[in-house]
Amino acid sequence: MKLFNIDGKFAHVMSRIFDLAVLNFLFLLTSIPLFTIGTSCSALYTVTIAMSQNCDSYIFKSYFKYWKAHAKRGTLLWMALLLFGGFIILDRFLITYMNHSFQYFQIFFSTLLLLWSMTVSYVFPLLAYFNSNFRQTLKNALFMSIRHLPWTLLILAIHLLPVISIAIFPPILSALMLFFLITVGFAALALLNSYIFEKRIFPVYEIDPAKTERI
C-alpha cells in the first residue's frame, strides 16, 4: 500500500517521531547539569527550526554541533535569566507576607514576572536562529515578545500546558503527560513553537531562512 511505502505519509510521520524521540533524549541528557539548560534549549531550537523548514539532517550530529557552538552564550543567557527570575519570584513571595502598604508591589513584580517569561520564550529561539551578542539577544527577545503579543501568549500556553496538566489532572493522565514529556514532549513542543517563530514571527524581520546554518 502507498500509505506504508518508504516515501509515504506513514513512514514520514514515524521517521519524524523517531527524530523527535532522539532529539528529546539528547536534550534531557545534556540538561542534567542544570547550568547547561540554556545551551541545550538553543541547540534544541536550532534543530527544530531546521525541521520546520523541512531541512533534514542527522539529529545527533546537528544537535551536538549547535550545542558546542552555543555553549558560551547559551550558558550566560540562561544563568542571567535564572538569577533575575529567581530574584523576581523571591520578591513576589516575600511581599505577600508584608502589610497592605506594599501590596502595590505585587502588581509590579507580577508584571515583571510576565515580561520575564515572555523574554525567556524568545531568547533561545533567537539565539538559535541568528547570531547576536548577549545584550542584543535579550533586547530583541523582549521587543519581539511584546510586538507579537498574541503569538507570545500562545507560545507561553504551549510551555505551561504540560506543567498545568501534570498539576491538575488525575494521576493516570498526569502520568501519561509525564511520559509524553520524557519520550518526545520537549522536542515536540519546541517544534510546534518553531513553526510559529518560522512562519509568523521571524519573517516580519526578513531574516533569511538560509541563516540557520550560520555558526
TrEMBL record:
The record's section on Pfam families has: DUF624
Record keywords, A-Z: Membrane, Transmembrane, Transmembrane helix
Q: Where are the transmembrane segments?
A: 20-37, 76-95, 107-130, 151-169, 175-197
The organism named in the record is: Mediterraneibacter gnavus
State the InterPro entries in the record.
DUF624
Q: Which domain of life is it from?
A: Bacteria
Q: What is the lineage of its organism?
A: Bacteria, Bacillati, Bacillota, Clostridia, Lachnospirales
Under which name does UniProt file this protein?
DUF624 domain-containing protein
